[in-house]
Queue: 4 jobs
Job 1
Amino acid sequence: MELVECVPNFSEGRRPEVIEAIVAVARAVPGVRVLGTHSDPEHNRSVLTYVAPPEAALEAGFAVAREAVRRIDLREHSGAHPRMGALDVFPFIPLGEVPMARCVELARALGARIASELDVPVYFYEAAATSEERRNLEKVRRKGFEELCEVIGTDPARAPDLGPQHVHETAGAVAVGARPFLIAFNVYLGTANPQLAKSIARRVRASSGGLRYVKALGLEMAGTGETQVSMNLTNFRASSIVTVMDLIRAEAARHGVPVTHSQVVGLIPLDALLDAAVAFLQLKDFTPEQVLERRLWE
């Protein structure tokens, strides 16, 4: 059976009843298997992960988009994470033998429905992008909802791919894409200084000359006494969690700041954790076949 993974991000992390309602409409679509949700009140953001056959994935995608538009008002939203929409980001991710081109088709189809039926402007990104300038999500989202309200109708470079030439009053806009699997990984620093987190993020991320497959932002965690380096690891084999963590620890130590803890948002491949364990324990000649549970699953 063909399966795709969907990881929609919503601009709501403080009202569990809203997230439960969104998850419920996804579960109600036959063929959809919800794998998990992650909500962060500081980010005021939630991530839903589900897998489904392609057509069911598309149907569930529209269902959660409609529910988010109904229930989330960006005019009343605040949080540490950049956002431009109630349903902020919706990626389709190929699993198994499913080609990326199939996920591009799904992204374009979902975007068309969101634009025409929900009157929300749509931007396509990553493999679904309509131009190279829109491939990277950070270039699409930029400074978020408030900036987009000002420029969407006047700057041709910020015009949506589909939908109205103005943001939805309450739901903003949405980025819909197709991409490979990535790991959302956050590292917390024992300092309230956001400039240090931003400096370390610049040191780590590829766009500033850091690790090739890392995207990173330095974020303030208001009222916690901590800051966060928020990352997407787009190729954990080439830029591993261990490499990322070692670099952040070294940069933080130079400023006399501790790393307090880290966090995985959503799901992570077992191999990524095994790689981290092998590196930390300095295991020699270790193979995944030595993991008991893997042998039991065979």
Job 2
Amino acid sequence: MKRLVEIRSYALKPGSASEFHSLVKATAIPMLHEWGMEVVAFGPSGHDPDAYFLVRAYDNLADLESQQEAFYSSEPWLTGPRDAIVSRIESYLSTVLWLSEESIADLRRSNAADRG
């Protein structure tokens, strides 16, 4: 079975990556899990000190859209860490692709060290 994987790449404001990672790790990732989103991998990019990535898996495009709409319009996100996180982002780009469950598991394992 294939899953739709979203790779979100963030261009962060210069010098904010460490704070951004701390905020994402401590607040956003636990919230995404509470909302039932499957976070595959996240962390600082290896190519640019002001770049960051978040990888999530969904059943299909409709699942991605409904989960993200519910989460990003929720009171806990809007009144919680949203401003602190978004204020450190210059821009972001999302790309989606289909991957097998095995590829997703490998992506998760291969990037586990970046979560620290």
Job 3
Amino acid sequence: MRTFIARTAATMAIAGSLGVAGIASPASASKESVNARSVPHYQYGIDTFVNDNCESDATWSNWAIEQVNSFKSLGANSIGITFPFYSDSRYSNNVYTKLVCGTYYSSPSPARVAVIVQRAHAAGLSVVLRPVMDETNLKKQNLWRGLIEPSNTATWFKNYYKTIAPYLAMAKNYNVEHFAISTELDSMSRKSQWRSLIAQAAAIYDGDLTFDFSWNPHDDVQWKGTTAAMDTYRYVKAPITATPARLLALWNRALATDDKVPFISKAVIEEIGIPAQDGAYLTPYAWNLLPISKHKFNQVIQDNWFTMACRFMKSHHMHGIYYWGPAFYKGALSSKPDTADPQDIQPLPQASSIKSCFAG
């Protein structure tokens, strides 16, 4: 059984401001000099979702080689390795990794993840590790990971640290460049416990800790000791004929009004994706939820969206972009249109928008 990250329409406007204790202001959050920004260096990456179903070591290694080589062929200089951990419900304090062959519990061990890291580094790619809360249990409550409300926050953070600590240690041992300490945990983003958890993580791992938030109104948190990252599934009301320029204008309008992000120029787009289907501009997060019979397969939709996102990233002097790619078990990027998984990167954007973005 394979599992995928399911995107939902749930969003949340979190109250508060950058005045929360321990959260860095835009000025204090960056140690980068003006001169360093004059010669921008982007993270050009593709994300993969890695789940383990007890495959052989040889199969695992072959998948890693195929995928890394495929990503690099587009000009990528980085890979985002996203892997699942679990919680039982909206209010649960349990946080854990779990592997049971043939079920949706498929967390890869740190050793398994390290195989991909080694292959990536051997090919000259940097790595960002992204633990993400799997939504299979949460979907029973029609819930998105960004809306969890554990009954005991202190216990939740204790369990969360225990869960990610082995991966932090592996990241240290294998010189992983970036580690997402939080991914789309929007409802938890302003909890004061992040201060101590970030300190604990930094005691194990001395690379770049990223704090990944969803681009929604008021989701503008950046904790001291981390760098900013965004998962960008911001929708727009646009016809299928909209050009990348029109789409970019709509994103810029959103950024300038309700969805202001004060440190946008210091952030990385750590995940962006959209189904290659008509109508997806309004619901870029609706993976596997747009019937092909009503939403025609259309690679141009994905190509235009990716072109727009790259222009957005560069025009705001952001630090990089990661396009959501195929699940790890699929290996290389598909060379043929994939109507079964329209959210995967299709051949047209591979040849057009992504290659152009990474070449610039």
Job 4
Amino acid sequence: MIMDEGKNNSASQIASGIINPVTGRRLVKTWMIDDVMPFAAQSYNQFGEYAKPVSVIDFFSAPDVEVAFNKRLEEKAEYLSPIKEKDAWRHYFHFDFGAGAIEPCFLIDVKSFLQNRREHWQRKEVFIQERFEENELKFTEEGIFCGDIEAQTIIYCDGIAAANSKYFNRLPFAPNKGEALIVEIPDLPAGHIYKKGMSLVPWKPGEFWVGSTYQWKFENDLPTQTFRENAENWLKSFCKMPFEIVDHLAAVRPATIERRPFIGLHPLFKNIGIFNGMGTKGVSLAPYFAQQFATYLLGESTLLPDVDIKRFEKVLSR
């Protein structure tokens, strides 16, 4: 049985859906990307055309960024390639330095995928749209009770809310807030993701997602005027096409200090588990590790030590 209150501003609901195989200014391969990216694309597309291969056009924001990209090209780094007909992009964008391509990447239609799965679970009568209240859990010899639901095991897949759970609040979460604008730019080709510091990501026909930020200090999960002004100014300085802001999104990501997920069963409460801590990489990591966790719960495999919460056994056992 799946219980979810249906928040519109959960991190998943407002995610851009990008799976990018490289990261950082040094353009190194993202952790486990050779395994998780093809697995994710195949997994999403089992349910429909939710994973679309795209390229990121990376417009260099400074000379040293261009030097770093070209150096990686000389090293024949995977997923990087030069841009052909670079000047053709000057019709759409202002940029002072060069540009390169990151490919293949994938763009996941997360919002449509989640709605599809929700409707599927509702038809199968295994979904309840309701806020989970931890203090209503009851434990007996027969199992776990939550209202009228009786189960053998409960798995916390509740994003940043798990950081306040009495069972998992000792895990080293590092929540950070992200914001994005949704803008209409009907004259901009939607076949690529455009990056120059922030990113322009195809969202709906004629619309793009603009973001995002990583705010480590924040008062709430609401949109801020500061971000709106900064993102709008960035867009004016980068994009030559007319645009109109149609929405402003914000959410808190369940990131972790060591940038690795939290997966497994509690060391003291063996029927309480967690699947969390995906941070900014949830779109790529979740399918792969969901499969691994499922087979682990069935006794058919082990968890990767990097994600297994056994690494925090002493902390969780206090």
